[in-house]
Amino acid sequence: MSYLRFDKTEMIRLEESLQKEILRTNRAGAYHCTTIVGCNTRKYHGLLVIPIPEIDDENHVLLSSLDETVIQHGAEFNLGLHKYRGGSFSPKGHKYIIDFDCEKVPQTVYRVGGVVLKKEIVFVHHENRILIRYTLVDAHSDTTLRFKPFLAFRSVREYTHENLQASRQYFEVANGIKTCMYPSYPELFMQYSKPVEFVFKPDWYRNIEYQKELERGYDFNEDLYVPGYFECRIEKGESIVFSAGIAEVETSTLLSEFQKEVDERTPRDSFKHCLINSAHQFYNKQDDDFYVLAGYPWFKCRARDLFVSLPGLTLSNNETEMFHSIMATGEKAIRNFINGEPVSVKIYEMQHPDVLLWAIWALQQYSKFTSFDECVKRYGKLVEDIMSFFFHQKHNNLFLHDNGLVYTDGKDEAVTWMNSTAYGRPVVSRTGYVVEFNALWYNALRFSAEVCRSMGNDTFADRMETTSLKTAESFAKVFMNEHGYLFDYVDNNTIDWSVRPNMIFAVAFDYSPLDKKQKRQVLDIVTKELLTPKGIRSLSPKSVGYNPYYVGPQVQRDYAYHQGTAWPWLMGFYVEAYLKIYKMSGLSFVERAMIGFESEMRYHCIGSISEMYDGNPPFRGRGAVSFAMNVAEILRTLYMLDKYNNQL
Known about the structure:
Residues 285-636 form the Glycogen debranching enzyme C-terminal domain. It holds the Pfam family GDE_N. It comes from Candidatus Avibacteroides avistercoris. This is Amylo-alpha-1,6-glucosidase. It is a single chain. The chain is α+β, with helices and mostly antiparallel strands and 648 residues long. It is 33% helix and 26% strand. It has a 9-stranded antiparallel β-sheet. A hairpin with a 2-residue loop joins β30 (531-532) and β31 (535-537). The longest helix is centred in the last third of the chain and has 22 residues, at 458-479. It is elongated, with a radius of gyration of 26 Å.
């Protein structure tokens, strides 16, 4: 049985199937995302969603969906599914689904009387083009297929509504048409692998609703334009491929091209293979630069996310060359930033105080995966330059104090990963001596000192080692409290007593300013108060302000974002800390703790991990449907477990 297979009973229950989403990307920013029954429930959903840099920095939905209709003996059976005003679904094509499988590519099988039709979808790598293959598996009489495209031509942040400005003009191309609703957009080419008839019958389908947007407190309905429909005969055993993209294609190659794309896919036949496949979805190649998108469907490439995700997405999968490619882009951004230049690549939020420290952490993981000498050879100068930048006090919001700790101002602007804001102010004003910033700093000092010494820069290495001694002494005095856990931040007389997960980094990193007893105390508190089956809570239920449910309108969700929700990416550091303390004896506990993530492969965005989860049962997935840091750190956890198990 396929690892990601859903039968008819699961598909026809819309209260369940509409909660399960699929995501396919082209590794260049474009994507296809919808529910497993093909009903769009978000404004971000679409069959062909692409970046259009000529317009703005957002993705745009060109082709929202494609309704298929099976025609036999004059009877029409529409396989599409849309939700309209008032909660009514039409045309309820999900009732014909007998099987859905997503092991290699998304594959839906429909049965209409004696007709069995298989539909498979792939995204062409590095092209803004999606392919759908239809195969008539069985039929007892003449069969015709009709295809009705629903067009949007809008940003994922907006909606389209019936208007007189939308162009109805179209032009015939090989086995299809091209059309463009608005002048600023590229033309959309819709073509088939065999001749089809296009019937021009323009109309607007009004008041289509998106349930997820309604739940999130946003506008939730739009109108979609249908220019007409395509129609063709299909024989039993025959396959037809539909192509939608922004350039004309050679239709005679569509069948072979589809199969070639299928053959290149990583089968999602296990938990690990699902995560590897998901990891590849975040890769984003733009010209000669390689990026990691922070998540789908709305995130861009954010600096912190890139460096946290990089080792897990690449090294854990033995993809060292991809690490090199992405880090090459990251180094451009780093050097722009430390030189006071505009960032020349599309990496955002480089100014956040911990970003460069996470970059050093990523290089430290590279040194462990390859070798220390290889890391020094490739990235030693970069490490040296970053640390010199800090020692010369050139960062405008991370200041090295005489006690060896680093200080940041986060009162008016959210500068840590806990970055939610409401009414223009940080929900959690983490400011002053921030605990993970200083854990990162101590780790960077120790690792960078080794790097610089191996490069012959003993003077700088000595300075970093001397500073690290002060950092370690001050860290315990400032952050450790009598209850056995670390303050989240300390700013003069302001001390945050909240039990938060950020203290786990001080236990997980290779170089820790804590002694063994202190590490165990911190780990025990995190285990007792923050550990869930879906990650580590952002706030303890015992702390003031605990809010575990990320639901409701935007402001309500902003206040819950880091006030109790569980984050899977923190699990990688928790596991690393746990194994450092308990070593081989901790394996069985850690393996049991990972079970909740494997079960997640069949829920929310199937085969991937959502941005966050409710902090209380049943720990529902929330936010972005697929999140890079989460996938990366669970992959890194599996890599760590493999290494420990191989020692047995």
